[in-house]
Amino acid sequence: MPKATVSELGSEDAKLYTLAKGSRGRVSATEGAALRDETGRTYASSNVSLTALQLSAVQAVVAQAVAAGAQGVEAVVRVATSGEPDAASMSAVRDLGGERVPVMSVADGSDDVATYAT
Fold it and tell me: Domain-by-domain residue ranges, the chain?
């Protein structure tokens, strides 16, 4: 799991970080995520926590991309209270993007970016 810092992200991944952090902050969610699809379009979402529906921010942003017609994933950035994405989130990214899609995760209070591959 390679580590970098937020300031070391390239411009496109830094944009995803900003979108994920903003999406989370807007609704005071525990998790925010942003995704860049195969055409460069970006999507952002927070986690969903309803009685009848529970989605991580990563699952929600993958669903949003699929609903918009995305056929693949270039990268995902997740900002959350915990550092590591859960298995269901990683599976959702893999279902749309295939193997080796980078899922970058930043935990609260940290500038460290941990990168996981689907």
Answer: 3-117
